[in-house]
Amino acid sequence: MKLYYLAAIITLVSAVLGVAFSINAVGKETDARRTSALYMLARSLALMIVAIIPICYETKNILVVITIAMLIVQIVDCF
């Protein structure tokens, strides 16, 4: 397997997990926290959709951008 596709798959799995955790948060939270969870879900869905592109088309630039975006999201979500 090419290193490119390994990176693309790891990025996509990360995005799918973000969507799964967001769906879980939307189901659990209420009021203002639910609003934050809905924002997190919308953001995660958008990132997941973009993360599919490098799997369908071998575009290194998009893979780099989406991987960096996923890293930033995960770092920000830690705080």
Helix count, DSSP H or I runs of 4 or more residues: 3
Oligomer: single chain
Percent helix, as a range, is over 70%
| Average pLDDT over all residues | 91
> How many whole angstroms does the radius of gyration measure?
14 Å
Structural class category: mainly alpha
Order of helices and strands: HHH
The biggest sheet, with number of strands, parallel, antiparallel or mixed sense and barrel status, is: none
Measured by DSSP, the beta-strand proportion falls in: under 5%
What is the overall silhouette?
elongated
Strand count: 0
Q: Distance N terminus to C terminus? A: 35 Å
Any low-confidence stretches, pLDDT <50, length ≥5? none
Summarize the structure in words.
There is one protein chain. With 79 residues, the chain is mostly helical. 89% of the residues lie in helices and 0% in strands. The chain is built from three helices and no strands. It has helices at 3-28, 31-56, 60-77. Helix 1 packs antiparallel against helix 2 and helix 2 (31-56) packs antiparallel against helix 3. The protein is elongated.
